[in-house]
Amino acid sequence: MSWRATLPCTRTEAELVGDAEPPEGAVLLVTEEDEAAGRWRLDAYLEGEPDPAMLARLAALVPSAASAPVVERLEDQDWVTLSQAGLEPIREGRFVVHTAAYPVETPPGGRAFLIEAAQAFGTGHHETTAGCLAMLDGLAGDGFADIVDLGTGTGLLAFAATHLWPTASVMATDIDPVAIAVTRENAERNGVRDVRLVVADGTRDPAIAAAAPYDLIVANILAGPLIAMAPDIAGIAAPGATIVLAGLLATQADAVIDAYRDAGCELAQGDRRSDWTILRLTAPVDPHGDRKTDGA
Fold first, then answer.
1. Would you call 125 helix, strand, or coil by DSSP?
2. Residues 115 and 122: beta-carbon distance below 8 Å
3. Are the C-beta atoms of residues 279 and 249 closer than 8 Å to each other?
4. For the domain bounded by 3-84, which CATH number is listed?
5. Cα 123 from chain centroid?
6. How far is the C-alpha of 193 from the C-alpha of 205, rounded, in Å?
7. Which pTM was predicted?
């Protein structure tokens, strides 16, 4: 990356930008500058000098900014990795997620995952990813045989599923081929060999449909796509399946819950983390109350 455009932003804008699809040709990073004052910063890293159209797209991401982006040329380096090299380990239940800059010991009975900063969402440091890890950890006593992680990002949640349910079939999908490439690299780095990787938009890819139904579905994406995909996600769920949803602000939770209730699902648990909410729902149960429980 040879150029950087910087804008101040609010915490809410930073969190929304962190989950947003970046403009083509840009890598977006958000940094907290002053916790007490609520000051955050958006940095957009670009291969070429940004034109007025790109600057306008970046400015639209942070309406609170009162000035135009500050643009500077940088030496050619891996700025994405360098800017996040100092991320300290996070701990959720039996899991620890860390970068190479912060090596850790594996917790007793748990698992440590090395997830470097990359062009994919899911280092574990965002409230949504950490909350999903905690939600999965709380489900460890349940038996799951067929699991799909929709919008896998770095693959972290799929990797956690293979640790909790080692005999389950686990599929990780993402619309972005870069994310799947990052997941493949992370799987090799962490010795995870039992995740099937699929580049797919939504749930209607033949590979996803062929492996359905799933008794555990995880989707850490955004509220809009979650709402739009509610019938499709319910459609690939086994009777009584567990559905974990994240990537939605607390103010968006009711709309997401309503969409899944319309699809026959019921809310089982909600976990709020800062401005974000993680939901656990139960898919409709068939008349006989059958549920697949042959997993570990």
1. coil
2. yes
3. no
4. 3.30.70
5. 8
6. 22
7. 0.71
